[in-house]
Amino acid sequence: MKIKENNKLRDNNLFRLIVFVLIPLAVIIISGLNENNYYAGLINLFGVNIILVASLNLVNGFSGMFSMGHAAFMAIGAYASAILTLPENIKLNSMPGLPDWLISLNLPFPIALIIGGIMASIVALLIGFPVLRMKGHYLSVATIGLIVIVRAVLDNEDQLTNGARGVTGLPSIASTWIIFGSAVICMFILYRLIRSKYGRGLIAMRDDYVAAQTLGINLTVKKISAFCISAFMGGVAGGLWGHMLSVISGKFFYIDASFKIVETSIIGGMSSLSGAVVGSLVMTFIPEVLAPLENGITLFGFQIPELYGVSNIIMSAFVIFIIIFRRQGIMGYSEIITDSWFSRKTYTSLFKGSEYKNLVKTIVNKFRSIPRCIKSIGAWFSKKFGNANK
Amino acid sequence: MTDLDILNYFLSQLVNGLKLGSVYAMVAIGYSMVYGILRLINFAHGDIMTVGVYTILVLMTTFGMPLWSTVLIAIVIAVAVGLSAERVAYRPLRTAGEESTLVSSLAVSIFLQNLMVMIFSPQRKAFQLPENLTVLHQIGSIKLSTMNIITFISVFLILIVLSYVIKKTRIGMAMRACSDNMNASKLMGININVVIVAAFAIGSALAALSGLMLAGEYKTIDPLMGFIPGLKAFCAAVLGGIGRLEGAVLGGFIMGIAEMLFAGLMPTEITPYRDAFVFLLLIVVLLIRPNGILGSKDGGRS
Prior knowledge:
The complex is a heterodimer. By secondary structure, chain A is mainly α. In chain A, 73% of the residues lie in helices and 2% in strands. Chain A contains 18 helices and four strands. In chain A, strand 3 (298-299) and strand 4 (302-303) form a beta hairpin. The model of chain A has no long low-confidence stretch (mean pLDDT 86). Chain B is mainly α. Helix content of chain B is 74%, strand content 4%. Chain B contains twelve helices and four strands. Chain B has helices at 3-38, 45-63, 67-90, 98-120, 131-134, 146-168, 170-180, 182-187, 192-218, 227-240, 245-265, 274-288; strands at residues 125-126, 136-139, 142-145, 220-221. Chain B has a two-stranded antiparallel sheet with strand order 1-4. The model of chain B has no long low-confidence stretch (mean pLDDT 85). The interface between A and B is large, with 45 and 45 residues.
């Protein structure tokens, strides 16, 4: 049998395995072993962002609703799991209003996370029945309302949440392993879900809800269930977030946090789970690169004064740029990262000689095409300048 | 407390509600102008308001200019900001989905907020209106400043003028046509860009004016002051029936009065929930009347 010729590197399974699975895995393992490093903290944040954005994509990208209230579910998950893991003396101090059995209750972290997620999805279920009947902008505004309502409850129920002061002293037990373990599990669940009958129903609903309805898809059930699943993962991510920073407060889960999640989802590509990964990558690390600008740095011999907010300015300009020039997000509809993580083909390629041969051939072809590439770029430039001179 | 005291207290809360409501109504008209045509929630509207306020503050404190001239300059600058945002961030997205423009306007909003933070520092600043506008008038048990009265009257003045513009003039007719069906009006030879630019110009000018009124009410300003009132005003516009100016005004007043009555009449344990109450009110109203109180036929519910 003749080996199928592959000209694109990204179609090669071995290449996918190395670039999308092994290298990230190595980075994660290295950061997991150096838990106290500053960059390890950033990588953990990246993992939490992946869960948040991917779960939002299920609602916004795959089922055609536009929720902006993801931070509310994050807050619920964070507080619920915090109540279950905080030591008793802290709970007595900052949450005296809790019933006695909750104060003495202490659960293992994974169970607390799951219960936090369940609480978030119960709230999503309750709010979903009325709110998901709206569509478009009305839904967005109603979900923003949800954030405001949750914030008001968190800030004013002093006895249960310690009010606006927030809760400190959460055990910081969300290690890199737990965060990325949950991220991979969440991504796997979402990936299988979208490829199942259920997920195809969601996509049908997004594309044309009348047609979907005539094909026998129960829109209400679909909408509410997708919303609840998304809220569950949002709650889990919130719990991870809280146990990563070991301090939670209503102001961390407010409108701006929610907007940031929505922006990340749009940048990466709303209708793609891989987009969630790429979007989180961009939105977690670029602000860090820009952060020195805020404190004033010396660049090429010029002393740049302190510029508060300049990284946000650059980020928002970048967001506008992406939306205008690549409306579907960086990844568009491609699922290349999740495909390479969760399909068997990627892993079996390690044991196939043909894959290696193919990879070498493709790389050689790539190098061979470099002169042609330069030539065509040169031609393009001369054409441009030729036009300009005329 | 006697019955009269209670009545007086109720009345003063009602008047407070009217004060707040007239500011909301003012912002909501601006929102409605843009939303009615483009179906775009312009989150940056609140921040254009902030730009206007800071312009007024800077011109008043550093150059000592009289208020009326600073307001004129602030309107010019706000319109310039609004139009450039339209040109840069919204026009290329006109054929895109609702979500893209929504996020684009969010990005513009964050951009403007941080620009203000960068230029004016994130600290709060005092905002003092000239004395002759803050004189209190005592009417029965109710105290009102001149500014409150001006705000209240100008809301209705602007409502009447804009209604006339939209109903009778050429550009207004074009606006209504675009709002009904953008593509059909394009085919009828209406210059869409002119119409949209006009809507943004009116909206931004109103934003600058309402910024002045909001700052007069709050007495302090900061670079992030515009966002939450802007969001609430948008809710007011949705409540009243977005796309209709009367709806925006009605929604603004309902929201202001409801907020103030809630804050004044409810037991003190639940008064901090007033923002939550406003949004809850919005959700409930939208469930009963999906298009808002004065809403048009174009539904908000699937």
